[in-house]
Amino acid sequence: MLRSTAVDLAARIAGLIAFGARAGRVALDAIVPPVCVACREPVSEPHTLCGSCWAKLGWIDRPFCARCGLPFDYAALTPGPVECAPCLARPPAFAKARAALRYEPASRELVLAFKHADRTQNAPAFAAWMARAGAELLDGADLIVPVPLHWTRLIARRFNQAALLARGLSKRTRIPFEPRLLMRTRRTRTQGDLTRSQRMRNVRGAFAVRANGRLKLKGRTVVLVDDVMTTGATLEACAKALRRAGAKEVRVLALARVVRPGEGTVG
Length: 267
Ligand SMILES: [Zn+2]
Ligand SMILES: [Zn+2]
What we know:
The chain is an alpha/beta fold. The chain has helices at residues 2-31, 51-56, 85-89, 105-116, 123-133, 135-138, 151-157, 161-173, 196-203, 213-217, 233-244, and strands at residues 96-102, 143-146, 182-184, 207-209, 221-229, 249-257.
């Protein structure tokens, strides 16, 4: 009896503290003026960029590959959807990929601060940019799944940046967020200095769908979310695992993507 009262009291205190923290944050939002997501200079709306930071970022726009979203240097002469040479030669396991930004110095700074310097308060802004870039992918999608980290890396980093972006997208679109469907079954080496084929080998078979995930995936259209699309090797491995487990279609949405010089030339 006494014990249950103590537990009840502890729960009430915890509730009060949580309420206090929420109220405090609301009050803080009202006092502290909103700042630019990148340079922290004052702006009029929260979760937005100032004009000069907006102009510095390489926003991806049409024309781009209808499949992987690779921006083209110039519009194709033929009307209708055009795919890049690599997509035509070897169609990826995902149906479509889109990203909000080119991965360049300005966006790299934002991504690295998000990943390593705990700038997690930027997640709503990033999710808004991704929702805009990926509107056609989110349309009709059933699930939002982040690229998972290996559990050892998750402990070291404390959060999965892809999961924060995916959760932000889910909040905006009300498409269910499934952070535990896909898992990384083994640690893979950091891919920074690897070529595309080395990356493909590095992540081959590194992802799997949890035993209870097949039911949720059967016949579903999945939006797979990551922070940066580099060569697409990780996303390809994830898409394969999701499709093997029964997903009807996998679409990829990233905050930024690497575009190598000359890569966007229509062949
Ligand atoms: Zn700024
Ligand atoms: Zn392509």
